[in-house]
Here is the input.
Amino acid sequence: MSAEVQSIIVRYQSDKTRLIDMLWDIQQQFGYISDEAVVTLSELLNMSCPDVRETITFYHFFHDRPFGQHKIYLSNTVIARMNGYDEVRIALEKEAGCSFGCVDSSGLFGLADVNCIGLSDQEPAMMVDEVVFTKLTPAKVKNIIDQLKQGKTAEEVANPEGLESKAVEYVDALVDSNIRMKGEVFFKTNRDYQVILQDCLNVLPKEIIETVTISNIRGRGGAGFSTGLKWRLGRDAGADQKYIICNADEGEPGTFKDRVLLTRSPKDVLLGMIIAARAIGSKHGIIYLRAEYWYLKNYLQQQIQEFQDKGLLGHKILGYDFEFDIRIQMGAGAYVCGDETALIESCEGKRGTPRVKPPYPIQQGYLGKPTNVNNVETFAAVSRIMEQGADWFRAMGTDQSTGTRLISVSGDCEYPGIYEIEWGITLDQVLQMVDAKNSKAVQISGPSGECVSVEKDSLRTFCYSDLSCNGSLMIFDESRDLLDIVKNFMEFFVDESCGICVPCRAGNIDLLGKVEQVIAGRAYQQDLDDVVSWGKLVLNTSRCGLGATSPKPILTTFEKFPEIYQKKLVQAKGSLLPSFDINSALQAHEVAYKTLVEGEKK
Amino acid sequence: MSIKMTIDGKKVIAEDGQPLVDVATDNGTYIPTLCYVRGKPCLGTCRVYSVRVNGHVMASCTISVAEGMEVDVHEPEVTDMRKALVEFLFSEGNHNCPSCEKSGRCDLQATGYEVGMMVSRFPYHFTPRKVDHASKYIWLERDRCIFCQRCVDFIRDKNTGQKIFSIDQRGSKSSIEIDVKLADAMSAEQVREAAELCPVGCIIDKGQGYNEPIGKRQYEIKSIRERALERRKK
Here is the structure.
């Protein structure tokens, strides 16, 4: 085995910044990353073994113990739970013959829960090895597991026609794109990429930045930073190397627009990256693709290849003195890597821990060099801005929120899927568009965003100064239990906290504890006051965007729907806190007594 | 270049670009820190140095001073936040000062006194954590680790530069790990450095536990605040 691990390491020139690629190769070849492999890695990469393990154990999809020949990850989002998750989960345990978190006796299946895998429009969904299965039912689960038991690979089951994985038909066989409404910017067909790029190369880089700046486009990942300004800072940063990174770590629960953009318009994204490289002066680009989207990898690689073949990537692009290449970096399961500095750490083969800022990536990013990180959608939009002009783009949307954006709609509505909306439209208009009935609450921007009340907020508009949606929009109707949803979101943050700073590492657990207390009917007014003050603490003192938003599911529902909390409250009786449960407090004594005293008698 | 700023309303002149926490200390305002070590790269993990800068809560070790900056250290809300963060560290780990070798020399304990903490407002997690005593010279008492990462970043193998200490898992499952082979190759001096750098009693120099009697240990003679402010005078 050691020789095979060695050859994997050599494949990446023994470069420890490629550790994540090596770990993937090892896991795909041997099923898991053994202690022996860790020793080989540590020896050849000049790292201590615990240092190698730092990376392995950080990521959800890496296993340092056997986890079954087929690794099955069932998406446990609130949307999945609204669509039959429980039945599917039971069916999986029954058919695979093991419970979640375990491997079956034959070592064939490992079952695990996973946070959103970017398929909220077709839940319940699961990943099996590197492919996905959607719209699951118990019968469908049985059929899949039966085929796997017969010795088929997950890919053969998902792709019975044997389509080539680099073709779009392959992706379509696995997932639906569900584009419900197209607008002016995205999903245009028959674009002449060569001509658009030619036009960009004919002008000075600073003129490209000028156009992007005038268009007033802001980052579509969520933070809404001015793309033109970021590019100018990148241009001005003096360095021998600069990098362009496309953030395709679409981890916010409920969002899946980047999956669809990368499926339907991958070349828009690639072109945007090339334009950014020209503008900033970069030779190397990286697409950081979340591991949940493995099934897109070969397809994207093919798109890159086609651009190379046509001279749009590589040396002397279209005959100009300009070179640029793009590689795909696979993630390995960590929501926090959506933070650009965590993403860069991950690209360097390390734990996805957000860096201390400043310096910002645009000053010192990947390998310490100026790095421009943009969202998938931002790159795609820029490619259209350069084609149609800044004024065309600015004519859409509002003054401060120009253009259109994609939203991924899921939950209680007739038509979940992708909608291109112009900034400035109201919540009410969106709900009509997607045909949502009896809506009660809408989660804007996923758990890290805001829960709004349809009754109170229907006239609020989508724009950066109001509902600055990052692409995720989940709709909940009157029948849904919002507290249960809040609990799920808090569990998500507890699970995804990287743990580097204490407010997020410990605070989210305590906040979740309070929600559970409310649900169990053991909270009184003081607990709600605590929730608000602790939430504010976590939000203000955490190191990165994860902790700075994680209390929001509680804080925003508490603001919009105080009654769901109030009606669960109890009155304190006497001097005992309602949260004090005498039976559970005495349970440890009971156990100790049974073991020590009664055990002795026997 | 000199810049003008205010700390708790007091006018201060400082050199542009210095970490705020250092400027504050140099001007007589103590800000507690549990990960930051003056002169070393900022780790940004403990957050107990949070202060208000131009109205926003910010980490005073990661931010550099700039012209016109208005800093509030003792404003009640942010003062309570610092206290709460120290309480988090106590409730998340298993800290039992009376039976700890580091008592009286522990930065966390001393900071607890400094922020006026009596008891944690947060529920204690009582997470079971295993002790690691496999290395020859170091006793790793995981119950007390606060994940400051000082040892991870600042204590490296002298020959290879490799990490001796590292963090396993993530989030609340995080665990401090030690490479026994590299730890056993540490000099007595480096072991002592690691034990002293550890702000709690997690890295214990084996055989040195109670070498100073209670009542004569460093923070019992002089508080962590006095020590921090004294250092700037030198």
Summary: Chain A touches chain B at residues 46-51, 53-54, 57-58, 334, 351, 356-358, 494-503, 505-507, 509-510, 513, 530, 534, 537, 540-543 (CB under 8 Å). The mean pLDDT of chain A is 96. The domain at 404-480 of chain A is CATH 3.10.20.600 (Ubiquitin-like (UB roll)). The first helix of chain A runs from residue 2 to 11.
